[in-house]
Amino acid sequence: MALPSKEIRQHTIAVLVDNEAGVLARVIGLFASRGYNIESLTVAAVDEANNLSRITVVTSGPEMVIEQIKAQLGRLVPVHKVSDLTTEGKFLSRELALVKVVGLGEKRVEALRIADIFRARVVDSSTSSFVFEISGSTEKIDAFIALMRELGMVDLSRTGVVAISRGERKL
Amino acid sequence: MPQQQMTGAEIIIKALVDQGVEVIFGYPGGAVLPIYDALFKQNRIRHILVRQEGGAVHAAEGYARSTGKPGVVLVTSGPGATNAVTGLTDAMMDSIPLVCLTGQVATHLIGNDAFQECDTVGITRPCTKHNYLVKEAGSLARVMHEAFHVATSGRPGPVVVDIPKDIQFAAAPYVAKERVTRKTYQPRVKPESRDVRRAVEMMLKAKRPVFYTGGGVINSGPRASALLTELVRLTGFPITSTLMGLGAYPGSDRQFLGMLGMHGTYEANLAMHGCDLMINVGARFDDRITGRLDAFSPGSRKIHVDVDPSSINKTVHVDLPVIGDAAHVLEEMLALWKAETKRPDQKALDHWWAQIDQWRARKCLSYRQEGKLIKPQYALERLQALTAGRDTYITTEVGQHQMWAAQFLKFEKPNRWMTSGGLGTMGYGMPAAMGVQIAHPDALVIDVAGEASIMMNIQELSTIAQYRLPVKVFILNNQYMGMVRQWQELLHGGRYSESYMDSLPDFVKLAEAFGAVGLRCASPDDVDRTILEMIDTPRPVIVDMCVDPNENCFPMVPGGSAHNEMILGDQGGAKATVSDEGKILV
Ligand SMILES: Cc1cc2nc3c(=O)[nH]c(=O)nc-3n(C[C@H](O)[C@H](O)[C@H](O)COP(=O)(O)OP(=O)(O)OC[C@H]3O[C@@H](n4cnc5c(N)ncnc54)[C@H](O)[C@@H]3O)c2cc1C
Ligand SMILES: Cc1ncc(C[n+]2csc(CCOP(=O)(O)OP(=O)(O)O)c2C)c(N)n1
Ligand SMILES: [Mg+2]
Fold first, then answer.
1. pTM score, whole prediction
2. What is the rounded CA–CA span in Å between residue B247 and residue B222?
3. What number is the ipTM of this complex?
């Protein structure tokens, strides 16, 4: 049998958990104590009736480590399901960011023009500031932020990644 | 009929009874007084009062490991809970099923730095399999039952249930065990038949196979040991075991190569190094086993049977994982093996055994008992000889004596060997022996101890006295933290920094002060007599066996070395060279 690949790859993992106190601490504690890295982690209730939350973790590592992460998540008691979106078919991943840009004149106009190209929405404005709302892939948001940084970005808030598989398959 | 209301404390007791609990180990305090009150009013459950909460947890571990049933602990909030942390971590590392009930300040006080408040679920999260903070009396019964389910199913482990004092007083209906259902945590115990079939095919083709078995076989229950024994005998393959797995296969059988690993036998380690097929059943490729990972059994294909998917490919990549409970897997393997008409290449096997017998002839555990000093190995060899034929339960502390016990005592059955493997907790052995003796009142229970370790939970002698437990403490007194001294000798130029045990107590007088019998033995001629007197005394006994202070434990695979780079005792051991990379390893 072939040895597992040592190449470090990014994986997006969806985890369905009981929506109860401490469950996030368990997941984060697991990553911290075993030295796995977390590139993004989001959580929200998704099923009121069954009291379930969905956690999306973006992490990276060689294949053996990723397999460990999934197995370790899988044995936490409040965890119902662990799904590695990266290996289980095609998936969508999105983030949302709120970007505050302060400035006057040319820069302000340029910020608005770029926001338009990126389909970012203005959700707040004053005579000297804008707050843009942008959603999309992590790369798209990174690119937008890089441009805004040059145009007077003073504040930034990002949700982290949420992800879902394409097609009919459910978690 | 409307459901009858009970207090939280009564619910706890009823749940324990319904779970079949007969004994709990504990220590009272303000935050568990209602539970102690409920205990007072009943006679189904026996409470053993320890002298420090750490002792309660180790006692529960000993109870659990020697019976296969979960151990139960009851401690108060704050310091009661924090004192339990070492034992919980120990049980986590060694996969011991425990349910530990901790008192907590009243719910409305949580988070206020109230008297004897600590964040018990926060502190114990990483050292338990799971933990609960019960915030409503209505969920108490369910949580109690779930705690037992989690502690005992799949890979066992410790579970903490933190119960605020107001919940212990509050009224709520009881929920029977059968009515509690779980949606998550249903670990898989039955393997994929396809995997078992492939395993058997690999076994049939093997020319140099070895079984490498571990604590998981013990966890799986005595049936797993019986199935393993049958399978190993049918195949004729050699078998070695980890420290945690000793007793799953009869220790005196010819096919058993002894323990493997850092202090394992020459033949076991070389068989692991040279095998072409490794069949791991319930062992976790611990670093005491693998030594240098990139040189670990380089030429073999590996099968790994384990109930916990996270044990698979954690440190060593295997060719065939078989996920399931050891007994289930072994049963299927055995059935397939019996049904199979093909047989492995007997000539190759004979050749392999001839090779193993050559390694065996090296007699790696040999030592010389000469002069006036008792060799620790000799004391244990005599202990083995004089207890043979009896159903003896052995616990240990941590250090050289623990390794010698593993090397020189023979375990013929599972659940007779209790030791702290993963955490290596000094102070484990005596309270564990207490728990074993409670479970097996008429058995001979011996804690093989070091003089340093025994001081760590010496207060439990008082518990032993109170319950008239005839526990035997067999101290191999070398006046050193021998294991530390050995590493300092091999790795730190013989600079014995703080490893000499100065100002030791007189263990004979100490025994007497606690109402036990103290025996000292300082001459090889007295070893047998002392051991026999210990066995024949129907009371707790402490034996102060004064042994050679300079003896080292061999064979040894030093940190960062491969199995075939073992140091043997008769090579003058101390001349070992250990790389700088090896030195940083624990
Ligand atoms: C001073 C010192 C020196 C030591 N030297 C050695 C040494 O030389 N050799 C040695 O062997 N050890 C040694 N140890 C012990 C070592 O640290 C480990 O504790 C031990 O090797 C682990 O044993 P194990 O692999 O059997 O795993 P365990 O810790 O017993 O784990 C059991 C494994 O089985 C699985 N399992 C659990 N239940 C089941 C089931 N029902 N069915 C199937 N699988 C199951 C678990 O998931 C886990 O993977 C030493 C310890 C100390 C303190
Ligand atoms: C609680 C704890 N502290 C420290 C250690 C590190 N340690 C491992 S063995 C050992 C010495 C044990 O001495 P002793 O009990 O006399 O046993 P010996 O090795 O001499 O047989 C020490 C300090 C440990 N395992 N546990
Ligand atoms: Mg000592």
1. 0.97
2. 10
3. 0.93
